[in-house]
Specification:
Layout: E1 2-6, H1 10-20, E2 26-30, H2 33-42, E3 47-51, H3 59-69, E4 76-81, H4 87-92, E5 99-102, H5 107-152, H6 154-173, H7 182-191, H8 201-204, H9 213-220, H10 222-230, H11 237-244, H12 266-283, H13 291-296, H14 308-324, E6 327-330, E7 345-346, E8 352-354, H15 362-374, E9 381-384
Helix pairs in contact: 1-5, 2-3, 5-6, 6-7, 6-12, 7-11, 10-11
Bound molecules: fe (ii) ion (FE2).
Amino acid sequence: MNILIVDNDSKALNTYEETLSNNKYDLLLAQSTGAALELVQSESVDIVITAWDMPEMDGLEFCRRIYQGGFNTNIYTILISDQETNIDLIKNLGTVVNDYIRMPVSPIDLTIRVAIGARVARLENQINRDRDTLKKEYYPTVRMLSHLVHVYNEDLGDHSRRVAEASVKMAQRHPGISTDVYPTIRAAGLLHDIGMVCVPASILAKKRTEMTARERVLYLSHPIQGESILNENEKLRPVAALVRMHHEQYNGKGFPDTLAGNQIPLPAKIIAAVSLYDNLVHRGKCSLEDIPTQLQRYMGYQLDPNLYQYLVQLNLDNMVADARKKYQEVRFEDLTEGMVLARNVRLKGGAMAMPFQTKITAAMIDKLSQYNERGYIPNKFYVYKW
Ligand SMILES: [Fe+2]
């Protein structure tokens, strides 16, 4: 722990140095704020103790330079002065200045305040290291796994991305979710169906009522499979727990653990609710206008009634966004003569199959039908609204 002590009074400087001399701290000394600024730039400083009343640049201004200068925003600053109160100090406490010691400074007071500062600085450094780890390891891993889901099944990948985005949006509106949970919710939304990669693609295409008993067992295992995949990475364990619960239902008739009501954590309920909504819109072909009525059928069963209003709000957002769009997304089955392509249709290898602004004819539908049957093109087309 590096501590920089700044005072133009050499007697005071020596006293502070003597008080803090022990094995725990490496002490740097400066008799002017100019020299201190150079040390902050060149050395790794964790705590600054500075006298307020200094010639040229006073201690408060020095702390402000540190705070705004981008040297290291996590330097813990302690100001020493004989001033009793000062509006400028009060305004800057907690940001520019972290602590204030009134003169005369007793050795025990200085020792205790520095020990507190050292603990805060250590915790802040730990938080920064964790944040770096998140950036370097956690997010790339989540993106990689999300890409895998998308490659395994494009529709599942698109569904998962929409669920992630909308779940975070709902979480941001919900007073019961704190900001530090958002990354976990986003990751769980993206990866809630990652266990599906353990289920053969032929089963994925079936409704649950069409599955054989064996296929059904495989399908029902996907939340547990997803959990066990994610549990391989310790940092993803909170995500894994939510993934296991994404098919639990409010009425206790979900799977795999038949949890009910408040046994299901709120983030898991949000992901389940948004996934239900997305399935109604994109798989059930329910119009956005009908969604509020449709959702009422699920209240108290699959859906926690307390989340109904949040889904309706989400639906309103989508209605507004939809009204602003000049194009709509359709599947092959919905293509009809007269529609005009709003985006190029490309083969999966990237070659152009049909340029945008092409007006769809019956012959083109035949051609696209052949491509579609052979899996040459994604089953997703963008056409202008008409
Ligand atoms: Fe699922």
